[in-house]
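If you are new to this repository, start here. Below is one unmodified record pulled from the training split, so you can see the exact layout before writing a loader.
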Amino acid sequence: MPCSFQIGVDWPLSSGNFVKLADEQRKLIGIIQYRVHKNDGNWVYDYILEIETEFENYEYHFTDGEPDSYGL
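And here is the target side for that same chain:
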């Protein structure tokens, strides 16, 4: 049976580069690094969230300040 948990993060816009997470966070949630940046293309969303993870079988769900929800 899948396990789920919820944690809060505050990930501001990055300068286009990936931001590495501290070892403690990485070990807890399996995310190595992230990037939040303004979408300059012709897409529906104004911002893009990208993550690099250690685990292929994790499902990630994010809720932003709007609150809009995203699944990765």
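Two things worth knowing about this chain: Residues 14 and 65 are 16 Å apart (CA to CA). The radius of gyration is 13 Å.
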